[in-house]
Amino acid sequence: MNQARKKKLSHTIEFLGFTMPAAFAILLFVGIPFLMCIFYSFRKWNGIQRASTFIGFQNYVRAFTDDPTFGQSIRYTLIYALFTVIFINIIALVLSVVLEQSDAFGKGFFRAAFYIPNIISLIIIGFTWKFIFSRAFEAMQESTGAAMFGWSWLGQPKLAVFSTVLVTVWQALGFYMLIYIAGLQSVPEDVIEAATIDGAGRVRRFFSVIFPLIIPSVTVCTFYSIANSLKMFELIFTLTGGGPGTATTSVALDIYNTAFNSNQYGYGSSKSVILFAMVAVITILQVTVFKKKEIEA
Amino acid sequence: MKKTKTASAATFLLLLVVLACYLSPLLIMVFGSFKSYSEIMSQVLDVPQRFSLDNFRNVFTSMNYPKSLWNTLLVTTIGVAGIVVISSLAGYKLSRVKTRYSYILFLFCIMPMMIPFQSFMITLVKLAKQLGLLGNLYGLGVIYWGLGAPLSIFLYHGFVKGIPHELEECAMLDGCSSLRMFISVIFPMLRPVTASVVVVNAMWIWNDFLLPLLTISNNDSIKTLQLAAYGFMGQYKMEWQNIMAGAIMIIIPALIVYLIFQKNIVKGMVAGAVKG
């Protein structure tokens, strides 16, 4: 009996020894800060003093009723996410399908080349495109005379929103292509062959055979593009700084400004919790809807 | 489907044109980095008249490049090494022990993948300050352990499922302690997934900007490349030729790593994405 108990104890200790370092790191750097955020979201706290006072739901009420910047940032983030997700997925899928037609060398080469913007940090992407939108477009207008290069891509609110979408799609495309290409490669040859023998043309083959089979990839890509675009910060930080005005201020950027520029830590915490809820609700909805459409090959 | 040669050549050409347009902003950046101030302002799109390295020389000193590069390497190494150690240990054990508690702990470990960093950054900074992790590179590296572990544990957990138990039983019979066995038998077998974990986390930490901004930007003597880039690009305002040169110097280390480990990166990114 004693022997068995000893053995069980040693197993438990071993289990804890293996798992606790990671569990502790996650608890310390994610779990506790996240719980603290929820705690402080109900309090008034300037982040400098230790003391904070409980104010119930006032922060949340204020965020939704008395903060035009935050309302604007939610609107912007949703529009930005919607267009980013649509463009990224359509363009990445189309390019991947075209890529599938080329030989092995071409596939490897293009896949690697399209991925290059993805290895560059968003900070640098932001600065580079600031230059493209201002100086390079000006020069293009001079040489081509096309009016679109003369538009104020970062200065006119609606256009600036589109510009942030454009740059995000440009930067992230290669990553989503990787996933779509992997998905397309997993479609069994014989299914496609059977469809061809049955007389399905190329377009028909894609929509009736291939597309239903790669829905798992679509689920993953949509999930990632939604999650990433809802929390976009760095690109906007350097490309537009949230402007003109607050036209391209994302929720993440607004949280940053609220906490670290205006020292409203409690209020910023409540916005953080709202961001979490937003991402959680939208992604869970998306995954549930898409999972239902998945079929087995 | 057999395609005719001309059709696939046409696709190739079409893709080449698309790719050329797609990467043209980067080409403009490379050209810009060699130009003088007056040249970049007057002939934005042209090939530079001469390939002068003056801008790179300027930036090298004003960004304190060797120091920043070293700092970034240090943070990335500390972060990635720690993530690999704690995640492989935990992922392995959580996959092997099939009890309710083990499953609950597994869920706890991977749940943070659903929490956006911006949702807890405010309090993370406060907590890190109290723990004395603010303002130094080691602290920054250590914080990455907690942020990177969830996805990595998930990847290890999935991979270990595919490894047969027999090996461990043999090693046990030989009188190996479980830690010894993990180090000498299990860990070497995890190599493919370790490669993915290293690549995914290294690319992320290397390019990360927000966490360094929040934790070490108060201390001017330590900067990562991304922080240095931000500070220096703000300081140069409209001197685009220097900004372009700086951008290239920051991209090059990542580009070299990417070209060497291209295959692993592709595999790692797809693994991280599809399983995540």
In terms of topology, how is this protein built?
The complex is a heterodimer of chains A (297) and B (276).
Chain A: H1 2-40, E1 43-44, E2 53-54, H2 58-65, H3 68-101, H4 104-115, H5 122-144, H6 157-185, H7 189-197, H8 202-213, H9 215-230, H10 234-239, H11 251-261, H12 265-293
Antiparallel strand pairs in A: 1-2
Helix pairs in contact in A: 1-12, 3-6, 3-9, 4-6, 6-9, 7-8, 9-12, 11-12
Chain B: H1 5-34, H2 37-42, H3 54-62, H4 65-96, H5 100-110, H6 121-130, H7 137-160, H8 166-173, H9 178-189, H10 191-207, H11 210-216, H12 225-236, H13 240-260, H14 262-275
Helix pairs in contact in B: 1-13, 3-13, 4-5, 4-7, 4-10, 7-10, 8-9, 10-14, 12-13
Structure, briefly:
The complex is a heterodimer of chains A (297) and B (276). Chain A has helices spanning 2-40, 58-65, 68-101, 104-115, 122-144, 157-185, 189-197, 202-213, 215-230, 234-239, 251-261, 265-293, and strands at 43-44, 53-54. The mean pLDDT of chain A is 88.
